[in-house]
Amino acid sequence: MLKIIFLFLMSGGIPVAIAMAGASLIYLIIQDTTPPFVVIHRMVSGIDSFPLLAVPFFILAGNLMNNAGITNRIYNYALALVGWLKGGLGHVNVLGSVIFAGMSGTAIADAAGLGTIEIKAMTDHGYSKEFSVGVTAASATLGPIIPPSLPFVIYGMMANVSVGALFLAGILPGVLMALLMMLTVAYFAHKNNWGSDVKFEWLRVIKALAETAVVIAWPLSIWYLVTTLGFHAQWTVFFALIVLFAADKLFNFQAVLPIMTPVLLIGGMSTGVFTPTEGAIAACVWAMILGLLWYRTMNITMFVKVCLDTVETTATVLFIVAAASIFGWMLTATGVTAAIGQWVLGVTDEPWKFLLLANLLMLFVGCFLEPTAAITILVPILVPICQQLGINLVHFGLVMVLNLMIGLLHPPMGMVLFVLARVAKLSVERTTMAILPWLVPLLGSLVVITYVPSLVLWLPKMVYQ
After folding, report:
1. Is pLDDT of 394 > 80?
2. Upper half-sphere CA count for residue 418 (Cβ side, 13 Å)
3. How far is the first Cα of the chain from the last one, in angstroms, to the nearest whole number?
């Protein structure tokens, strides 16, 4: 009956969070065996979690980066690095999303922030709106895969999995997805005989490569000084930051400091300097230093507006988590999750078949539910089955999040779809058709990530062994 009430409310156009909480309340009133106040109690306890404190801070960090002119710097850096290739701005779109993913943690922020710049630039250079929207939508899915990631935080909290391990697990799959997308851009460029969008200039490319080298060499140097030469970790990082800022001032780097956000975040968590929640706070402090003090592209008025936007977004996300918490608890209490588990194990006890069925289920659910709600509902159902079949929960977390990100590109609930339709001033139907070819690299990535778990687990095992 619980599922019937939920589907009835959803069919009436009621938002999914209200439908989940409402269905739970109505079911308790009809059964008259449990006080309705349990709904409020379970919703509050569902968000009374220390790891969830990372959610508002990651949202704030993404909003600060988005409103401090950082997106323009990332775009110009990517343009210098790959804009001279055939189909240049398509490659810039993908590379820009890879970099921005390390700051925003959400697909919607990527699509709304960087996507606005990219679609306008691509259409100004003669690309069709459909191609521009398609590559922007596909690359936006990188946001929650490459750390930091809000869905990983929520999955880690629900499945009792290390958020730091999930963050590390997303790096190589994110690189794989980006490469497949860039190959797709190259295919379209060859098919349509597109040229480059900016002239190849050695000086410009060498400077971009030099920035890349700095991003790679800086953390490796700190690691060598601390682990091999025995330098004091905190003081080494402090002086290394001074050197980094001095180099940025001297050479006028385009995007070194913004790109350092995920480097500092992953480095701090993997070395035990801070937890994921404290890392989210560190990301906010870093964003404020860049926007308010270093680049001075943000003033106090803008900062207050960003904070208010963050409060609004956080309230929405946490209300979904709270509503999904009571709904998931009700599914467990009524025996739905156990029945589904028994049915699945009755159909197959082979992990590869279960992963195939789980992928189909999550792709379907992702078309109708917002990722946060879908994670909080699906985790209690699917994670116990994974544990019985011996499937690594970090690996399964990557599979789940990628499935739900693909769902963001589809009607009827695909938020990235609607954001890009509004940004590009296209109908939802034309936007949907524009995205269809880009499902090929996304589904190809999903197959590899699902059935080659070593790609996902190599980095977490290296760090957390």
Report:
1. yes
2. 9
3. 46
